Amino acid sequence: MEGHTNSSKILLGYFLANLEILFDKSIGEGESTKFQYPGLHYKPATSQVYGDLITLLDRCLISITKGSGDEISLAANTIGLMAMTAADRAHELYVESLPVLSKILKTWFPMFKEIIECMILLAFFGTKNCEEIENSMQLIWELIHKTSVSTGNANKNSLSILPAAISAWTFLLASTDGRRLSYKYWQGAISYFFHLLEEEMDEALGHAACEALTLILETGSLEKFSHRSSNINKDEIIEKLNNFILKFREQDHDQNHYYNEELDFISDVINLFEDDDCPKSSINIRGHLLTLSTYSQIIQFNYLKRFLGSGFEVHMMGNKLLQNVFDFTPIYHVHHEKLWEEPTVTYFVLEARTKKTRQRLFMSPNSAYNKARTQLLNKNRDLTKDGEHQ
């Protein structure tokens, strides 16, 4: 791998600042947030910038298990970003973190959403096969059932965790090949999401259930998500989704434009599925076109964009792992005006710059300036022709 780049050094500086605050016990609760998002989301980097990666990971895991509030959030976000940028060492991070995070997910924890996010980013970037991803999905699925409204455990905390947990499970499902999923783990998932849509619940939970069902439709492996006795088919799922969206629109949800737009999009995706077509979306990232051709890719894109926030575009332009996920290669069109050079001439004149001197340097057809200008015009003209033939 190449040596440290300027962006790697910048990120390393932010990481060190974060860690200094994270582990300085003399700093009061709440002060760590001032470095949290600028540091974690500023620039992509390679694993080389972290030095002893496992030492850094261990310190973050200690903060997660023994810290509180901002310290936990900062540590979880740090691990998530490490997984996203650690390249060939991401699997090492996953293996080392799994025992600690899985234990936390099996007990009540005040920062569940941050831990869930950390867990699935490790699974997404660090697992090597479908079995490892399914293992992480099972941990999230157990948490979903433990806090599920269908088991009578509904409360304010569970209703805030459930949408995040279902979205995380859906994100990991989008990262697997439905044909390779096990038959024994997900029996009854469709019925569970059906039940959620039938309940009176908040908008976030209904939206999360709709996303999960829509993605299950795309996998084409409905038999793996339904009870063998129920034999739920594609038309039943589409009908259930359409009924929920219609009911949602009839209720007073006008103030929440986000969920209205998201459910409208799901409705469009369902219509495409009915015609045996796939959703497609194109996103402009700093002048470069990213094309998403499946609902799975759209789920992945939205989730990672939420995590990275304002740093998403920077990562997409420089993070090879993210570029590989979406098969995205920034293409710089050679005829773009920003890539054209302007002629400049540096000259040194020992005596005073008289009128004749300026004419000789700039106005004469054989001047250095005009020669440089002619060469660059010819060069830009050739680049434009090449760009048109590509």
Notes on the structure:
- The protein is mainly alpha-helical and 390 residues long.
- Helix content is 62%, strand content 3%.
- A two-stranded antiparallel ribbon has the order 1-2.
- Helix 3 (53-66) packs parallel to helix 5 (90-105) and helix 8 crosses helix 13 (295-308).
- It starts with 5 loop residues before the first helix and ends with a helix.
- Mean pLDDT is 75; it is low at 1-14, 25-49 and 334-355.
State mean pLDDT (0 to 100 scale). 75
Uncertain spans, ≥5 residues at pLDDT below 50?
Answer: 1-14, 25-49, 334-355
Instruction: Work out the number of β strands.
Output: 2
Spatial sequence of strands, sheet with the most strands: 1-2
Structural class: mainly alpha
Largest sheet: 2 strands, antiparallel
Distance, first to last CA: 31 Å
Order of helices and strands, N to C? HHHHHHHHHHHHEEHHHHH
- Rg (CA only): 27 Å
- Fraction in helix: 55-70%
The percentage of residues in β strands lies in under 5%
Shape: globular
Continuous helix count: 17
